[in-house]
Amino acid sequence: MIRPAGFRGAAFGDASDGNGRDDVHAREVISTELSISTEWAFVRQVHGAVVARVERTGSAGDADGLVTDRPGLPMVIATADCVPVIIEGDRSIAVVHAGWRGVAAGVIPAGLDAIRERGDTPRRAAIGPSIGPCCYEVGEEVLAAIPHHTSTTTFGTPSVDLRGAAERQLGGLEVWRSDRCTFTEPDLWSYRRDGTPHRQIAVAWVPER
Questions:
Q1: Burial class of residue 131 (count of CB atoms within 10 Å of its CB; 0-12, 13-18, 19+)
Q2: Cα–Cα distance for residue pair 12/3, rounded to 1 Å
Q3: How many CB atoms are closer than 10 A to CB 198?
Q4: What backbone phi and psi angles, to 5 degrees, belong to 65?
Q5: Is 171 left (phi over 0), alpha (psi -120 to 50) or beta?
Q6: How far is it, in rounded angstroms, from Cα 45 to Cα 164?
Q7: Does the reported pTM lie above 0.70?
Q8: What is the mean pLDDT of residues 49-56?
């Protein structure tokens, strides 16, 4: 697991960690490594901008983010090219799945607002591995949706910098950022590269005192 420096309850997985959202054994191994409960909260990701407020484990329905201030409740999203973002407040935390549609729809500002709506203040954010602008070939629809972060792939076609767009939407927060590219690094799952059904996870939780 990748543990962003300075964060109390944040971790990003790679392919070797398995998909703890769907695989019970992988979840047990990850939970043991992180010293968290094996009972997690999760959502059915739909590439939108809804952030679910959760107080218990299990499914929180259709959404692309989760937020809680309940200590000891792990929340998880899964990615295989999209950008995983964890936002930490003083006493609450959010985890967000941000593909290009989610970025365009404002799922990251929705995560910030979800923390504020709990009477808390967002303090820092961590951006996990995702596809880089080096490899994220896109069409006109995506270029129009994320106009301030257009780029060019290493093979000369139009792309967008999803990580950069995600960081911009964090509004000047202190940001820890992984620049590892899911497409180019074989120890990360990539749907674009392999068409894989597998996903790496991002886990966020408020530590118990």
A1: buried
A2: 7
A3: 15
A4: -165, 160
A5: left
A6: 22
A7: yes
A8: 97
